[in-house]
Design brief:
The protein is mainly beta. The chain is built from one helix and seven strands. Strand 6 and strand 7 form a beta hairpin.
C-alpha cells in the first residue's frame, strides 16, 4: 500500500516572509501561518488555541510569497510535511517539522497574484535550508 504526505492549512500569516538564497542560488522563503481552534468548555466559557505552522517555499513560489505576502494576510497553503534534524551550538540534537509548500493561495482582500503555484522540489532533495 502506498502512503500520502499532504498538508492543507488555512490561516493567517504571522509576518512578512523572510527570503534567503540556498547555496545553489535558489530562493527560499520562510514564514509562519497561525490556525485557531475555538470551543466552549464545560463551564460555558469560550476557549481558543492557536497553532503556528512553519512554512518553507522554494524557487519561484518563494519569490512570489516574499513579494506579495504580509503579516495578517489569510492564505491557504498546500504542501508536504518534512522534519529536519541538526546539532545546535550547545551540541544538542534538535529537530523541526515544517510544511514545504507546493501551492499558496492568497485569500481575503484581492492581491496582484490570485493563485500561486510552483512544482515542489524532489522529495529526495537534501539541500540545507539557509535559516
Amino acid at each position: 500500500m502506498s502512503s500520502l504526505n499532504q498538508v492543507s492549512i488555512i490561516g493567517h500569516v504571522g509576518r512578512k516572509p523572510e527570503l534567503r538564497h540556498a547555496a545553489s542560488g535558489g530562493a527560499v522563503a520562510l514564514f509562519s501561518v497561525a490556525t485557531n481552534d475555538v470551543w466552549t468548555d464545560k463551564e460555558g466559557a469560550r476557549r481558543e488555541r492557536t497553532e503556528w505552522h512553519r512554512i518553507v517555499a522554494w524557487r519561484g513560489l518563494a519569490d512570489t510569497v516574499a513579494e506579495h505576502l504580509d503579516g495578517g494576510r489569510q492564505v491557504h497553503v498546500q504542501g508536504v510535511l518534512r522534519t529536519r534534524d541538526w546539532i545546535d551550538a550547545t551540541g544538542s540534537k534538535r529537530s523541526i517539522t515544517e510544511v514545504h509548500a507546493t501551492r499558496v493561495l492568497f485569500l481575503g482582500r484581492r492581491s496582484r497574484a490570485e493563485d500561486v503555484a510552483e512544482p515542489h522540489p524532489s522529495l529526495d532533495e537534501t539541500e540545507e535550508i539557509p535559516f
